[in-house]
Design a protein that fits this description.
alpha/beta; Ribosomal Protein L25, Chain P; seven-stranded mixed β-sheet; 25 strands; 22% strand
Length: 561
């Protein structure tokens, strides 16, 4: 990619810090950021905010951004996740060029750094079990107790750590811990673990290692190795910052990045925990990481969301130090606004009601002109077949309509989109009294939707020709969770899933949609925006509803204004 996309974002405290550093020629005026996901799951909308900040800020200051896989936990990581991360970052509109790195590339250097801490008397091998370490750590109101192994000599620690690497001890038998302060008010500074023994096959290094570094140790050193200037992360890592700085200071690393924290992106009716999302996938509550109900970027892409809309939404949320929850309606507003400009208009009927045009010749077809996108003249037009038998929405007819109902009713006239005025002359019912057919007449003089005698109709409805319509499946989505703030619920998150989050409806679509391929997005007129799904076949198309036409957020904003 030659140029990163423009990410519209208001000035924020992070940009102010970076701008001041550049002005004062800190780091020789260089700006180097990184996006460091752990490859233990697929990226979600929350990661999109971090991606836009990391790549966007670097681009604004003529800097560069690294993509680094934080792969220090072999029990959860996989090459599938690495490839999905790369695919999603590129889809969102960003490129790391030749700056793809892996924490596992630095295993030898990380080991050497740990050895150096031991030599400086700042790390020791501890034989306490996990439970014992937790007990010795103390509480927020009581200081911890020093491990009885804290007094081991440098020589003994070096020997034991080398033997840990050589696989002489069982998993969990020993850990390497930093020697800091067991009375520190910051729990993360109470002699945290640096290395643990774990005999697990690593997807990149195989079985070469049986000890693996902890995140807090590996992350800051990886940043330093790569020459990162601004290590931007979410707010939960603020309490880890003293440890980040401690490692770099004690090791006297030549590059000491500045860690800056911002509030993560949260969304109503959405869970962002990768652990919980993984549970949804593995336990079959959703159909994979790319299920269109998932907040993953792959799921949103399959649903028809565009990277432009996601970047615009993320930019609108800004970077702050205050945790908040963004309204799902706001995300949908940006998506709707973007698709309004780019999506071709087509007609589809979800709940068909047969209409027979009694005065239209049998066996004939009239090809009508239909505009593909009124927002984009270059999109041109298409032909829509009109025939004697049509389908309209059942909701577009009422036998006994109330006032201000302007659609079809007995003796009433409506306009067919791109077509003619039609008038209902007769209602046909089955033996149970259900309406099964309408018999109407059309006015040939109103072709294209206007009347030469100047008469007006208030209702315009969509339709498809019964002789030309194709059957398709429309997947209609609602939020995956039934509660607005599922993270705050005391219930098990699986117990607050919305049972109606997915409904599949057979619909009738106009023949132009036969050419739709997965990823194509359309506006089904008067219904919503839909994306052709990969499950589609040549015989039957499947469409995912991206968003409806109703813009709740815009109405809220107008009301407040």
């Amino acid at each position: 990619m030659d140029k990163e996309p423009t990410v519209t974002a208001p000035p924020d405290f992070i940009r102010a810090i970076v701008a001041n550093d550049v002005k004062n020629n800190k780091n020789n005026g260089a700006v180097v950021t990184r996006f460091p996901p752990e490859p233990n799951g697929y990226l979600h909308i929350g990661h999109a905010k971090a991606i836009c900040l990391d790549f966007g800020i670097a681009a604004e200051f003529n800097g560069i951004t690294h993509l680094r896989m934080d792969d220090t936990n072999p029990t959860k990581e996989d090459v599938e996740y690495v490839e999905s991360i790369k695919r999603d970052v590129r889809w969102l509109g960003f490129d790391w060029n030749d700056k793809l790195f892996f924490a596992s590339d630095y295993y030898e250097k990380l080991y050497e750094c740990a050895v150096e801490l031991i030599k400086r008397g700042k790390a020791y091998v501890c034989d306490l079990s996990t439970d014992e370490i937790r007990e010795y750590r103390g509480t927020l109101t009581a200081p911890g107790r020093e491990s009885p192994y804290r007094v081991r000599s440098i020589e003994e620690n070096l020997d034991l750590f080398a033997r840990m690497r050589n696989g002489e001890f069982e998993d969990g038998a020993k850990t390497l811990r930093a020697k800091i302060d067991m009375a520190s008010p910051n729990m993360h500074m109470r002699d945290p673990a640096i290395y643990r023994i774990r005999r697990e096959h690593h997807y990149r290094t195989g079985d070469n290692w049986c000890i693996y570094p902890m995140y807090d140790f590996a992350h800051c050193i990886s940043d330093s190795i790569e020459g990162i200037t601004h290590s931007i992360c979410t707010l939960e890592f603020e309490i880890h910052r003293p440890l980040y700085d401690w490692f770099l200071d004690e090791l006297e690393m030549p590059c000491h990045p500045q860690q800056i924290e911002f509030a993560r992106l949260n969304l109503t009716y959405t869970v962002m925990s990768k652990r919980k999302l993984l549970t949804l996938v593995k336990d079959g509550y959703v159909n994979g990481w790319d299920d269109p109900r998932m907040p993953t970027l792959s799921g949103m892409r399959r649903r028809g969301y565009t990277p432009e809309a996601i970047r615009a939404f993320v930019g609108s949320t800004g970077a702050t130090k205050t945790n908040s929850v963004s309204d799902l309606n706001l995300l949908e507003h940006f998506q709707r606004d973007d698709l309004n400009k780019r999506a071709s208009r087509v007609m589809a009927v979800m709940n068909p009601l047969k209409v027979v045009i009694t005065n239209f010749p049998e066996g004939e077809t009239d090809d009508l002109d239909a505009v593909n996108n009124p927002e984009d003249e270059s999109a041109g037009s298409r032909k829509v077949p009109f025939s004697r038998e049509l389908y309209i929405e059942q909701d577009d007819f009422m036998e006994d309509p109330p006032k201000k109902y302007f659609r079809l009713a007995p003796g009433r006239e409506v306009r067919l989109r791109y077509g003619y005025f039609i008038k209902c002359e007769e209602v046909v019912k089955d033996g149970n009294g259900a309406i099964v057919e309408l018999r109407c007449t059309y006015d040939p003089a109103t072709r294209g939707g206007t009347s030469p005698d100047g008469r007006k109709v208030k209702g315009t409805i969509h339709w498809v020709s019964a002789a030309h319509a194709l059957k398709a499946d429309a997947r209609l989505f609602a939020p995956l969770f039934a509660l607005e703030n599922p993270a705050e619920s005391e219930l098990e998150f699986k117990d607050i899933l919305n049972p109606d989050s997915l409904q599949t409806v057979e619909c009738m679509i106009e023949p132009a949609l036969q050419k739709a391929v997965p990823g194509d997005v359309f506006q089904f007129e008067r219904i919503g925006y839909f994306c052709c799904d990969p499950d589609s076949t040549a015989e039957r198309k499947v469409f995912n509803r991206t968003v409806g036409l109703k813009d709740s957020w815009a109405k809220i904003q107008n009301k407040e204004a």
